[in-house]
Write a structure and sequence with these properties.
alpha+beta, 36% helix, 30% strand
Length: 124
């Protein structure tokens, strides 16, 4: 499927990470989504009920990222991908990217990121 909904850099302040300081102080994270689904019916009908609302996608990301704590951003991405696939059957594939700009590493970096791709058949 070549149709996509893209949601770029949803900013959340959360407490993910391995270190005690990360759990105590928190930091900003950015989550980006690339979901694949057929958008033809929505485009022809101009009906939001025929698509997946990016407001719903953003709500899922924000809720998971701010109400749960993960040691690994990989686990955060996995939780987001799983819930979105579970709640939105029209989505056939999702790419979740989690950026951690303030990662505590002993180097000067702009940040670190992980990206996962999950397909509907792999989610079941």
């Amino acid at each position: 499927m070549s149709d996509r909904i893209l949601v770029d850099r949803i900013a959340v302040f959360a407490f993910h990470g391995l270190l005690p300081e990360e759990a105590r102080l928190g930091q900003r994270f950015y989550v980006s989504l690339d979901v694949r689904l057929d958008l033809g019916a929505a485009g022809r009908s101009d009906d939001v009920a025929r698509t997946v609302s990016y407001a719903d996608l953003t709500e899922i990301v924000t809720r998971i990222a701010t109400q749960r704590r993960f040691a690994l951003i990989e686990a955060l991405a996995e939780a987001i991908a799983g819930e979105i696939l579970d709640r939105h059957p029209p989505i056939t594939e999702i790419r979740v990217r989690v950026d951690k700009p303030s990662a505590p590493v002993p180097a000067v970096i702009d940040g670190v990121a992980i990206e996962i791709v999950r397909r509907r058949e792999a989610a079941r």
